[in-house]
Amino acid sequence: MKRHFYIIALILPILLFSCKSTGQIAKTNFDSDVIQTVKNMNTRQKIGQVLMVNFRYCKASEYSGPKTNLTDFEDASGKIVKVAPLTHINTTAQKVIQNYHIGNVILFAENLSDLNNAAFMISDMQLLSKSNSDLPLIISVDQEGGRVNRIFQTATFPPAKTIGNTQKPELAYAEGKYLAMQLKALGINLNFAPVCDVDSNPSNPVIGNRSFSSNPETAGEFASQLHKGMKDNKLISCAKHFPGHGDTDVDSHVGLPLVRRSKSEWQKLEAVPFKMVIDEGIPVIMTAHIQYPGLDSSKITAKKTGRTIIRPATLSKKILTGILREKLHYNGIICTDAMDMKAISNNFSESQAVIEALNAGADMICNPISIIEQSDLARIEKMYSEIEDALNSGKLSKSRLDNAVLRIVQLKKDYGILDKKYYRPTDTDLKIIRSKLENPEFYTFKNKIKN
Description:
Elements: H1 3-17, H2 32-39, H3 43-50, E1 51-54, E2 57-59, E3 71-74, E4 80-85, H4 91-99, E5 104-106, H5 115-133, E6 138-141, H6 160-165, H7 169-186, E7 190-191, H8 216-231, E8 236-242, H9 263-268, H10 271-279, E9 284-287, E10 299-301, E11 308-310, H11 317-327, E12 333-335, H12 342-345, H13 350-360, E13 365-366, H14 376-393, H15 398-414, H16 427-437, H17 440-447
Parallel strand pairs: 1-5, 1-13, 5-6, 6-7, 7-8, 8-9, 9-12
Antiparallel strand pairs: 2-4, 3-4, 10-11
C-alpha cells in the first residue's frame, strides 16, 4: 500500500474527531432561483419532493398481460399476492406522480426488461412530473456491477472487489465513466454507487464482493475514482451505506443488523472511505438500516411492534447530523436506504419512519411505501396527512423539511435535470439509445478485467 494511505490511516481519526462539535451544520449556498422555487411550493409539494418511490410491480388485477409474468409478492399487510412487473405508466403510477407531487423515482430490473418500454416509461414519468409541477424527477437505479445490476441490455461490469483487486484505481474511474454513459442513454440521472462499505466480515450476507476492499484506504480510493468517473460524465453518484454495512451478519432486507464495533474502531475503519469520498464532493450518501450502539445507543419505541429498540442509523440524529454533517462536514444529500426493507418496515409505520428519518437529518426518503394498486393511494394519503400533522404540531420541523427540499432542487439544477428537454422518444431515438448501450468500449473494458 502506498505510503500516503498509511499516513491517512494514522491521522484521519484524529482529524475527524479531535475537535468538539459546535452543534452547527455547515450551510449550503442555494441559488436564488432554487430558494424561490421552494418558497412557491405548498406543504404537499415539499413532502413529494423528498420522497423516492418505486413502481416495480402492479397487482394482477391491474395487469392484462401474460399470466406467465405473474409472481408472488408480500403486500403491506403481509399477505402474499400475485403481481406483474410494471413496464409502462399505468393509472396508479400516473395518479401517484400527479396527485402527490413525487420528486424522485427508483427503477428496478423488472421495469427495465424491455429497452423500448423502459425508454417510454422514463420519458412518460418525466413528462407527467413536468406537466404537474414543472420540476423533473431524479430517476435512479442500482447499477453497481457484479450481482447488483438492473440493466442487462448492455455490458455488466465485474464486482467491485474484482476491480479493487487489480490495484488499478484508474479502472474504477473508467467504470464510472461507462456507467454514466449507459444510464444517461436511458434517461437515468442517479446511480446508487459506489459502495463505500469495508468488507470486514466474512459472514456478511449482503455486502461481500460489492465492497472494493477489506482495506479502508483502498475501498475509499476506488470508491472515489468510481464517483469521479460518474461526476465527470454528469451522472449523480451515491456512496453507501453510512455509517458502514460491512461488518454485519444480518441482511437488512430481512432483519435489523447490530454492529458491535466501538466508536474508535469505526473511526479507523468504516469512517475512512466515507471521509475520502466526501472530500471528493460526493453529492449523495445513502444510510444503512443498522443498529450501531458504539455511535448511538439511544432507544426508540417502534410504533408497529411497541418494542423499544436501539435506534437504527437511518433514524439517528446522532449519526446523520452529529457525525455525518457536523463531524465529517458532509453537505450533500442524505438519502435513506429503502424504507420498505424489513429492518425498518417490520418495526415502524410508514409515516413514523419518514418523520424520524427527516428529523434525523435525511433529505431523501427511498421507498417509503410499496405501491402496487390503486387502493394503495389511501395509504399514501394517510402517510401525507400524518406527516402534515407532525409539521403542524412541531414534531417535524418545517425548516428541516425546507432544507431537504432545497438540497434536492439544487442538486437537480446542478446536474442539468431542470433544464433538460423531455419528450417521448421516436424510433430514431430508440435506435440511438440501443447503439449507445451496445458501445464496444464497454465490452473491451469488461473483458480486460479478470474475475
